[in-house]
Amino acid sequence: MYLVYADEQGNVFDHPSLYGLARSGEMIVEMMEDELIPLPEGATLVGLPSTRAVGMDPDSGEMKPLPNNAQAVGALLPQGFTRLYLPGYVKTDKEYKLPLFGYSAVVWKDGQFYVAAQLTDDPEKWNPMNCDTDDLNEGVKRLTEKYPDNRLYSHLSNCALGYECLTSSNTFLNRWEGGVPVSHSCNAGCFGCISEQPDDSGFVSPQTRMNFRPRVDELVEVMLEHLKTPESIISFGQGCEGEPSTQAKIIIDAIREVRSVTDMGYININTNAGLNDHMRGIVDAGLDLMRVSTISALDDHYNAYYKPRGYNLANVEKSLRYATDQGVYTSINYLIFPGVTDREEEIEAMVEFCRRTGLKLIQMRNLNIDPESYLGLIPKAQGEILGMKQMIDIFKAELPEVVIGSFTHVPPEGMARPKKIITL
């Protein structure tokens, strides 16, 4: 498995003799054959600016950085694939921050590219190749013309066509999980926020946050257009917004109005779940699914990344427990990072967190971050680093009732929350 690198023009090469290496946290390590899979359809190879690729001499075992103009290469994986390692590299400019993506180690083997990753969910619905451009343009035209005064459709059209957001695209294609953003504000200051960064952060947000507060009727129009099949999902809490529960009142009013008309499909919220009273109201209004974003079940790690304002991890746990007790199908959006998430203390804490909250699904999501910045922010490891593959195996063994996946699922038959038609 040979080293892959790129020149300054972005041309990608495989090295004739050096083996590829990877990173687990701060450590440069070797990869095992059983940790590699062929580069998945929909993955993208990117050069890592201001880095030098690092390979290994197979005869001596010596690690060798390539010249300055030989950048490391990383793979950006489609949803459904969990990375096991970061690319092996050293930075040539310590101050440079890599763009906010989740880079995975890639090598050349048997005449093709391989990545250090594991399939953790069925990627079919989230394969960009399944989003037909002509159909999407037609859907955008149809719904923006049908609802010319609905600012959400105008906003989502840019997300779908400009950012190629698949959730927004689904909203216009009337299929699977669609998005309905609602909030321009947030009660957290996430270090890796993809929609809003402080001017002095050094990061460039890959998306622009919505800048208006939608009306209830705008939410209802989007929701009713989408909830037309038994397996359709409409989700509050998108990458282009802040924390949806800060707008709890309009969410509650919209859910009640929609459920007075139809009990079709599922209403989901992607949330940090820190505002307990707001979350209780949203659950009681008729929420079906709840996905809570977290990076750790340890307070010091959680606080360092999320920088919560007016809440803590105990509030998050309380919201999850309440939703689970009310029959909501609960999950976590688990932001993972090789060399951190697979630390012994992190695994133990997360297993206990899952047991206490009774959640049903762990959605493994590759953390989009500059590795050096993140590692400099969070606490140092206290125990052994077990490896991502072993971490997943431990979750499966210790939490046999919890599904390991990568995105929101419709609940298995028999686990769905009973729908209640609410009369206004």
Automatic annotation (TrEMBL):
Pfam families: Radical_SAM. The keyword S-adenosyl-L-methionine applies. Keywords: 4Fe-4S, Iron, Iron-sulfur, Lyase, Metal-binding, Pyruvate, S-adenosyl-L-methionine. GO terms for molecular function: lyase activity. Residues 181-347 form the Radical SAM core domain. Its cofactor is [4Fe-4S] cluster. It comes from the Bacteria. InterPro entries: Aldolase_TIM, Organic_radical-activating, rSAM, rSAM_sf. This is Pyruvate-formate lyase-activating enzyme.
